[in-house]
Specification:
199 residues; 4 helices; 2 domains; alpha+beta; five-stranded antiparallel beta sheet; single chain; 20% strand; 5 strands
Length: 199
Amino acid sequence: MKKWLQKTLIVAVAFLTLGAISPNHQFWTSLQEKDQAKQAEQPPKITDYSIGLTDTYVYDQLEEQAISEEESLIASAKELSYAKFGTKIGPVIADEFDEVIFPKIEEAIYMTFESTGNLHKRRLAITEKPAGDYAEKIFNVYDVADGKDVIRFHVRTEKRPQDGYFYNFHYHTAEDSFVAHHSIGDIYWSKNTPPKWLS
């Protein structure tokens, strides 16, 4: 058998079985032409392979899809946060945001995923545009099926007498109709008035 055809078959078998079956070299030598010396030296051996699929494969795929949705949401959350900060605020608070605030945002998103249950049945997405000016909204996580918000992330600019300006990061959940204020943390700006968001 020609080498290129043999190699093509090996690749096809590996691809179709997702690498679960490795080609037996004895099988390939039996396909070689009869005038080759290897054919005369070794009698062909046939090995029977079987593969069993269970429901865990489907479950694993659904779990991987849910994990990839979570990771996509987390990446979008960070991207939207920095979009809200803009080029004036972002570089100043980036380090503290990455070390202190964002891990807590990430934790809140994961808790939201866990509390929604049936991850493979419910899809969550993130809003695409943070609010500018001095508005609080960073982003909202919502259920794609009904379009209702599940959790809202905000940052408020606070002026504290004698101390200056702080950014207060917090979130609201649908469980209490977005009434409760769940604090994530504060980042100090300075005593000077901070620029507007998205600037």
